[in-house]
Amino acid sequence: MSETAPSALLALLRQRRSVRSFTDQPLTEAQRQLLREVALRAPSSRGRSPWHFIFVEDRALLGQLAQAKQQGSAFLANAALAVVVCADPQISDVWIEDCALATTLLHLAASEAGLGSCWVQIRQRPHDANRSAESWVQSCLAIPPNLRVATIVGIGWTGTTLPGHAAESLAQERLHQQRFGQ
């Protein structure tokens, strides 16, 4: 990488935004294949790959997933695709981290494919006063009880264009050199 030109990854990160508004255009088969391969290539601790990915494009199921939480999941109803990221905690004690890595890569792959995306936190979030969002998603998609649901990534053709976050908005005070506070 040269000193003046950003890497392809940095260029992608500079323009990427979370998108919650999508058009009704379906994904191409090439985009679906890209997302599937990226998910399966996600790094995992000790190479255990505890995750499972459920690719949902059925409108009725997307509508059900959109109701997973009282706030923050409604946009899934209009996504072309929702990828439910879940894992088996018996395979790896760091399944949460493994799912987070896969979720991040799905975002980046969606951006690279010209798509918008946004994630929904499911783990440890309520559906309502009596039920967890995780239990809701498990029942909607017939997910076995041994699997834990971490996130859902909504993906589609963006219905809005947002600029990337300005460099000035980055929290430079969160960077430290050698020791905290330096």
Q: What are the SSEs and their pairings?
A:
Layout: H1 8-15, H2 29-40, E1 51-56, H3 59-65, E2 81-87, H4 95-112, E3 116-121, E4 126-128, E5 131-132, H5 133-141, E6 148-156
Question: What keywords describe this structure?
Answer:
two-stranded antiparallel ribbon; 18% strand; 4-stranded antiparallel beta sheet; 5 helices; alpha+beta; globular; 6 strands
Estimate percent helicity: 25-40%
Which structural class should the secondary elements be placed in? alpha+beta
Any idea what the CATH architecture is? 3-Layer(aba) Sandwich
Anisotropy-based shape: globular
Per the CATH scheme, the topology name is NADH Oxidase
- Report the CATH C-level class: Alpha Beta
CATH superfamily: NADH Oxidase
Strand content: 15-25%
Helix and strand element order: HHEHEHEEEHE
Q: Order the strands across the largest sheet as they lie in space.
A: 1-2-6-3
Calculate the terminal CA-CA distance, rounded to whole Å: 27 Å
Low-pLDDT runs:
none
Question: How many structural domains can be distinguished in the coordinates?
Answer: 1
Biggest pleated sheet: 4 strands, antiparallel
Radius of gyration: 17 Å
Q: What is the number of beta strands? A: 6
Number of helices: 5
Mean pLDDT: 93
Brief summary of the model shown:
By secondary structure, the chain is of the alpha+beta class.
Describe this entry's structure for a reader:
The chain is of the alpha+beta class and 182 residues long. It has a single domain, classed as NADH Oxidase. It is built from 5 helices and 6 strands, in the order ααβαβαβββαβ. Helix 2 (29-40) packs antiparallel against helix 4. GO terms for molecular function: oxidoreductase activity.
